[in-house]
């Protein structure tokens, strides 16, 4: 599973976990309220194309995981590769350096493509990871 996730990231896919009632329909499974989808979204369709145009009521449901921090370091040369791959347009180049705005969903695409390794994604407090795991376990049976 870890190898699959790593390969998906290397291929430019965005890892996503969530509950989408349409998934229960197209997968023909039920009940949909207990279905949690793990997806690797591609840049040709899915969230990459839809999210910026969705009504904020729906688009706002795709959020950054609690505790995730995405930061630009001093190594940034302002090449703009990160800006090109950001599917929510959260990155601007200002004064020769990338600036990541509040719209960031923490997908990590910018980290993957930065040729300088100047963008980091971290979860400094492990309690945030544990809290997320508990929320998922409350929603679905993960055993």
TrEMBL record:
Gene3D superfamilies: 3.30.70.20. Residues 66-95, 96-124 form the 4Fe-4S ferredoxin-type domain. InterPro entries: 4Fe4S_Fe-S-bd, 4Fe4S_Fe_S_CS. SUPFAM superfamilies: 4Fe-4S ferredoxins (SSF54862). This is 4Fe-4S ferredoxin-type domain-containing protein. It comes from marine sediment metagenome.
């Amino acid at each position: 599973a870890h190898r699959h996730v790593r390969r998906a990231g290397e291929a430019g896919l965005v890892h996503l976990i969530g509950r989408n009632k349409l998934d229960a329909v197209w997968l023909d499974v039920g009940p949909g309220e207990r279905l949690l989808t793990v997806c690797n979204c591609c840049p040709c369709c899915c969230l990459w194309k839809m999210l910026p145009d969705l009504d904020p009521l729906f688009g706002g449901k795709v959020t950054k995981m609690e505790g995730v921090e995405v930061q630009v370091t001093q190594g940034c040369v302002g090449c703009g590769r990160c800006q090109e791959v950001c599917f929510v347009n959260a990155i601007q180049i200002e004064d020769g350096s990338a600036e990541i705005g509040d719209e960031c969903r923490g997908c990590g695409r910018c980290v993957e493509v930065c040729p300088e390794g100047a963008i980091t994604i971290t979860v400094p407090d492990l309690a945030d990871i544990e809290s997320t795991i508990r929320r998922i376990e409350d929603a679905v049976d993960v055993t």
